Amino acid sequence: MLDGLFTSKMRIQILMRLFLNADSRSYLRELTHDFGASPGHVRSELMQLSAAGLLVSEKEGRQVQYRADRSHPLFPELQSMVRKALGMDRILESVVERLGNLKVAYLTGDYAEGRDTGVIDLVLVGDIDRRNLSDLTVKTERYIDRRIRTLILSDKEFECMADTDALNPRLELWRAGSHS
Question: pTM higher than 0.70, yes or no?
Answer without folding.
Answer: no
